[in-house]
Amino acid sequence: MSDLKGKVVLVNFWATWCPPCRAEIPSMERAWSKLKEGGIAMLAIHVGGDTNNIWAFLSEFNVTFPVLIDKSSSVSKAWQTIGLPTTYIADGQGRKALRAIGGREWDHADLIASIFALRS
Amino acid sequence: MTRVLHITMLVLACSMSASAASAQTSSTRKLDRDGLKLELGPLASDQVRAFFLGRGFPTKDVEHIVTTGCVFRSAIGSAHLNPGDPDVTVTLTQWRITSAGGGTMAPRTRAEWDVDWKARFVEEDAATAFYWSLFPTEQTFAPTDYNWGFLSFGLAPGARFNLDLNWRSSGLPYTARMEGLECGK
After folding, report:
1. Predicted-complex ipTM score
2. Are B129 and A48 a contacting pair at CB < 8 A?
3. Which of B125, B131, B146 sits opposite A101 (nearest CB)?
4. Residues 90-119, chain A, touching B (beta carbon < 8 A)
5. For chains A and B, what is the number of CB pairs under 8 angstroms?
6. What was the pLDDT predicted at A50?
7. Is A7 helix (H, G, I), strand (E, B) or coil?
8. Which residues lie below 8 Å from residue A28, measured CB to CB, with a gap of 6+?
9. Do B145 and A100 touch (CB under 8 A)?
10. How far is A58 from chain B (nearest CA, A)?
11. Which of A4-18, A49-63, B22-36 has maximum average pLDDT?
C-alpha cells in the first residue's frame, strides 16, 4: 500500500468459494478498465491460500487487476474485515472513505462516479 | 450502492445442484421487517461434505461438521436502501435455539469452531476457509449492505428446533421467532 501513497485505492477482500464474491468479479474487471484510466489503483486480496483454485478462477474470468493472497487472513483482519466480500475505497490520504459489505455491480455509473469523486 | 438481497440468494442457490436447490425451496425461511432482511435454509449433509472437502478438510473433520454442525446457508443484511437510513446490527450470540428436547443455546460461533479445529489439528487453509464461510458473530450493516455465510446451530442431522433471533436498528431491539426449523439430513 505504501507504493500507492497519494492514490485512491479500491481494496477488495474475496475468496473463490464465496458466491457473492464470484458474482461481482466480472463487474469489477469491467470497472477496472475505467478506474485505471482515471488513475485509481485496485487490489483484490484473496483470503486464504487456495492457490490452484485462485489462478484457475482468475483465468476463467480473464481478470487483469492485481490480486494478492492473504494466506493467514492477517491483512484482512488488520483491515477489520469480518465478512466476504468487503470492499474499501481508500482516499489519497490512506483513509477508508467508502465501504461496501456484500457484492456490488462495480461498473455501475454511480459507483464509478463516487470513486472518482475521491480524487479531489 | 444499491444491491438487493435476493440476488445473493439466487447466486447461492445457483451454486448448488439443481435437485438440491429445488429440495431446499420449501424449507427456506425469509424475514423482511424493521430494517432487517434475512433468508436462511438448511444444507443437506452431502452439500456440507462437498463444500468442506473442497476446502481441504479431511473426511473425519467434515463428518464432525455434518454430525454436530446443523449448517444453514444464510444471507442477512440491511433492508434499508437510502443513505442516512439507520444501521442494522446482528449479534448471533444473542440468538437462541430451542431444540425439541427443550434445551436452549446460541448458534456456534467462529471462535467456538476454531477451538475445535485447533484441537483436531486441522490445516490452516481449511480452518481459514471455515472461519470466513461462517457468518460473522456480530456485524453492523449500513443501508444496502448484506453478507452471506453459513450458520451453525449445533444440532444433529434432522433435528428440529425453534429459532429466536434479534437485531438492533436505530438503537431499538427487534425480535422474531422461526418455528419448526429442521437441520439438513
Report:
1. 0.86
2. yes
3. B146
4. 99-105, 110-111, 114
5. 84
6. 78
7. coil
8. A12, A42, A44, A65, A106, A107
9. yes
10. 18
11. A4-18
Confidence grade of residue B7 (pLDDT, cut at 50, 70, 90) = very low
**Can you say whether the dihedral through the CA atoms of B5, B8, B14, B17 is positive or negative?**
negative
Determine whether the interchain pair B1/A104 forms a contact, defined as Cβ–Cβ distance below 8 Å. yes
pLDDT band at A3 (very low <50, low <70, confident <90, very high): confident
Question: Nearest CB to A73: which of B128, B135, B148?
Answer: B128
Q: What angle do CA A83, A80, A29 make, to 5 degrees?
A: 60
Q: What distance in Å separates the CA atoms of residue A104 and residue B145, rounded to the nearest whole number? A: 9
Residue-wise pLDDT for B66-92, tens only, equals 999 999 999 999 999 998 999 999 999
Q: Do B3 and A102 touch (CB under 8 A)?
A: yes
Q: Residue A62 pLDDT > 50, yes or no?
A: yes
Give residue-wise pLDDT tens across range B160-180: 999 999 999 998 999 999 999
Asked if A90 and A9 count as a contact pair (C-beta separation under 8 A), the reply is: yes
State the pLDDT at residue A1. Answer: 67
Is the CB of A15 less than 8 angstroms away from the CB of B129?
yes
Q: How high is the pLDDT of residue B3? A: 43
Averaged pLDDT for residues B25-41 = 91
